[in-house]
Amino acid sequence: MTIQPVNEKTLAKAAALIQDGGLVAFPTETVYGLGADATNEAAVASIFEAKGRPSFNPLIIHVTRNTDLLPYVEWNDRARLLAKIFWPGPLTFVLRRAVGSPIAPSVSGKGDTIAVRNPNHPVAQELINRAGSPIAAPSANASGKLSPTTAEHVWDSLGNKVDMILDGGPTLVGLESTVLDLTLPTPTILRHGGITKESLVALLGEVQESHAITEAPQSPGMLSSHYAPRLPLRLNALSARDDEAFLTFGPELFVQSGAYRINLSPRSNLDEAAANLFSMLCIVDREPYKGIAVMPIPLTGLGAAINDRLARAAAPRD
Ligand code: TXA
Ligand code: MG
């Protein structure tokens, strides 16, 4: 059985697997990651293969406070400030690759930058520390599919392609990290996620959003038809047809539909809605429903990331 409970024995085994070039799926506070030793080119290549991920799409390396980042990336003052406030947490920095960096070249895709994050989860921290090197990890799902928020989701998406899945229960944030490019004169959000734009602006002053989010694939996770459920999604719906499942938000005072309903957050809490988003999409993405109608979600706070993922999930498939 690939899914394992977290204990001393399985943690030791997982760290040994990483050191031997294996693939271990592990929980973070955002979503489950598919991890390999970031300094081992063959191990990193097997991440791309297991996910069916295009080789131009770069990976995030995961570190802890014990990791000396200087050999890996060009660290700067902004990154230091942000790390002090938001790490460990759901914020990823894109930084320049340090000269002679031992991080495997394919981690960077076709570019010369490396994305770094310190995840706020005890199992992720323990695994990185025991492995003794940064762990490269995309979300632990087949490329283009919904990110996994439970160990079972990982199993359903990747099965035996993973050497071990460490089961840390459902993830708390439920959406991926915010990806912030710090190589440009103005810090630039490449992907909305667990740390809101508002909180970055409060600390940094100016923050811009990349047009790549809607256009060129600077952060290829932002290609339009990413996060695709099987069923078509209808956004900003105020009612649902009887053959649709209805993903609602807030009190359902005016909802008159007979459709099956599942509520992202009855008390209109965006953190709760984010935590529920992928798992609730999974629940309704199946027969007998013919589509998924989604109520409007505010654009503030984590709502920006939620709306971003929903827009991608609803985008036309090619
Ligand atoms: O919360 C998360 O970020 C999760 C957990 C496991 O840490 N990881 C995750 O990884 O979502 P992934 O590979 O599914 O998404 C990473 C995103 C992609 O959109 C990728 O294109 C972008 O970050 N990215 C990674 N490295 C980059 C780089 N050097 N420059 C620009 N974008 C980068
Ligand atoms: Mg992903």
How would you explain this protein's 3D organization?
- This protein folds into 2 domains: 3-209, DHBP synthase, CATH 3.90.870; 233-314, Rossmann fold (3-Layer(aba) Sandwich), CATH 3.40.50.11030.
- It has 8 helices and 15 strands.
- It has helices spanning 8-19, 41-51, 77-86, 122-131, 151-158, 197-204, 270-284, 303-314, and strands at residues 3-5, 24-26, 33-37, 60-62, 91-96, 113-117, 135-136, 164-167, 178-181, 188-191, 208-209, 233-234, 244-248, 260-263, 291-294.
- The strands form 2 sheets. Strands 1-8-2-3-7-4-6-5-9-10-11 form an 11-stranded mixed sheet, with helices on both faces.
- It starts with a strand and ends with a helix.
- The relative contact order is 0.15.
- Residues 28, 30-31, 33, 57-60, 90, 92, 94, 108, 111, 113-115, 117, 119, 137-139, 176-177, 179, 190-191, 219-222 line the site of threonylcarbamoyladenylate.
- Residues 28, 30-31, 33, 57-60, 90, 92, 94, 108, 111, 113-115, 117, 119, 137-139, 176-177, 179, 190-191, 219-222 line the site of threonylcarbamoyladenylate (TXA).
> Which kinds of small molecule does this entry bind, naming each only once?
threonylcarbamoyladenylate, magnesium ion
Helix content: 25-40%
Instruction: Briefly note the structural class of the backbone.
Output: alpha/beta
- Unreliable stretches covering 5 or more consecutive residues: 214-218
CATH homologous superfamily title of the largest domain:
DHBP synthase
The ordered H/E elements are EHEEHEHEEHEHEEEHEEEEHEH
Inertia-based shape: globular
- Supply Rg: 19 Å
Mean pLDDT: 93
| Known CATH architecture of the largest domain | Alpha-Beta Complex
The spatial strand order of the largest sheet comes to 1-8-2-3-7-4-6-5-9-10-11
Q: What's the domain count? A: 2
